[in-house]
Amino acid sequence: MATSPSPKHSPRSAESGRRDARRLPPWLKPKAARAPALRSMGRALRSRGIHTICQSARCPNVGECFGRGLATFLIMGDRCTRNCRFCAVEGGRPQALDPEEPDRVADAARRLGLRHVVVTSVTRDDLPDGGAGHFAAVVRALREAVPAATVEILVSDFQGDPEALSVVLDAPPDVLGHNVETVPRLYPEVRPGADYARSVDLLRRAGRSAPGVLTKSGLMVGLGETQAEIESVMRDLRGAGVDLLTIGQYLRPSREHAPVAEYVAPEAFARYERRARALGFREAACAPLVRSSYHAAELMPDS
Fold it and tell me: Which of 26, 143, 229, 275 has its CA 20 to 30 A from that of 77?
């Protein structure tokens, strides 16, 4: 069945986003983008048929990262089979998998000189394995093209399929990330296609099945959660053996997305980071503009 165009990138939505940006508190103003670097990186990636989550998710840090020659690759197309209300990635009919994509991503990582490669994907509930085999192929191609680099992947929940998870872990990556995104109470509103317990269980299984692979998760604040709920999620993640944690501020991509309930002050993020370290996470990054892959190499233990 044909999918109607998403409203997320309409001119009206873009104008709304600009008005919201002007109302942001000062601690949420990203570093100014360097236009030539943005254009150069964008052209280089497009010419190779490479998608990035930096662009598809409208990351506020894209100017800084592209300016430093960094990007987080988005594989398996740029259309997601879910419609999370916080995410700017387009939903709709997904593209067929491209068997040449693993080699293209690996070649791009080599050309960029990346020493820590981060790869994520759209959710592909339409595929029997959720795209696990394709993820594993990307990891193997990266190992061959940039053998000195560490590889971090941010995966979907594979609908709880343990065999799909095993396929990815056998590649293997250095870091397996899966974001819980928000507190359980808000899942029906914010992540209607996901399940909190399933996500935590995936991270637990990953840690037990592949103890040599670091596990990582992240969540957003400002969606209407309480401090007690955030700390409960942190305890759940640490209880599941998660090694690395990120917490950042939710920013509304358009009026069609979930509204921002609160702009959380930097002092609150500092408290979350102290709490994370007290709970035993090996590393934690908690700040307004933190995202899963932002400065990811610096979150690696002993980096």
Answer: 143
